[in-house]
Amino acid sequence: MNTEEQFRKRITELGTMSFMKDMVMFSDFLDLYQQSVVRSISWKNTGVHVEFNGGHEFSERRMAAFIPDTLYYEWDYPFSCLEIRPLNPKYAEKLNHRDFMGSILSLGVDRSRIGDIIVKNSQAWFFCHDQLIDFFMNELHMIRHTEVSVRISSADPEDVRPDMKEISGSIASLRLDSIIALAFGVSRSSISALIPKGGVQVNARPVTSAAFQISPGDVISVRGYGKCRFEGSLKTTKKGRSIVKLYKYI
Fold first, then answer.
1. What pTM did the predictor assign?
2. Helix pair 3-21, 32-40: axis angle to 10 deg
């Protein structure tokens, strides 16, 4: 049994447990590809349905909630947003996502227990299982050589999200190379040469076909250019072109 088969089996078991116990069951934080696998499983006639949440609208890492169709009580996702701040901002290093990620995981925490990490001006917000709140507040004291404090964030989770620029435009089709060309203002020919070399990922998985069809919600990472999220097609012109909207991470 390969890794994906094991994952499907575990997810299906969570759905079964939710139905049998008549209670909401939760996965760990899932990456974009794992979420697509969960969505590909047919939940029709299982007595449960699945929802996802990662703390804000543009979350990439999300928990899946398996919810009985007959559920009668209110519930919430078992994760919180923590804020990491330098104790002395004046002398803090310029810290990036890799610095925060490395320090968090160096404490022995599995990546699946952590959601998105958003970094702005050498401070960070990250989502984690509620069971780990006290652990991080007591054990995470240093990012690189900068002393930090950790507390439960008082910010609205929807305000804790990456900086993004909205882009809209007209493209001939929802091909991968067309979306990338629009997002980063480059020619399709230059992108088409990069894609077969493994320089592009869609939902955290390499894609080597320029003709790959993009769907709403897909996140595209392009080596040397950055990352964007495709929101969808707004309308079709009389000439058959699609007016689309996407967000570029900045």
1. 0.86
2. 60
Q: Which of 88, 40, 34, 29 is CA-nearest to residue 62? A: 29
Q: CA–CA separation, 28 vs 112, rounded Å?
A: 6
Cross-strand bridge partners of residue 53? 63
164-249: same fold as 3-68? Answer: no
Residue 231 sits at the vertex; the CA angle it makes with 53 and 62, to the nearest 5 degrees, is: 15
More confident call, 178 vs 193: 178
Q: Rounded to 5 degrees, what angle do the CA atoms 176, 177, 181 make?
A: 120
Handedness of CA 142, 96, 166, 227 (dihedral sign): negative
Residue 1 has pLDDT above 70, yes or no: no
Instruction: Label residue 167 left, alpha or beta by phi (over 0 means left) and psi (-120 to 50 means alpha).
Output: beta
| CATH number for the domain running over 3-68 | 3.30.1370
**What length does the chain have?**
250
With CA atoms as reference, report the closest residue to 151 among 87, 106, 210, 198. 87
- The candidate with the shortest Cα–Cα distance to 173, out of 203, 135, 214, 137, is 214
For the domain made up of 79-159, the CATH class stated in words is alpha beta
CB-neighbour burial class of residue 171 (10 A; exposed 0-12, middle 13-18, buried 19+): middle
The CATH code for residues 164-249 is 3.10.290.10
Query: What does the alpha-carbon distance between residue 223 and residue 202 come to, in Å, rounded to a whole number?
Result: 12
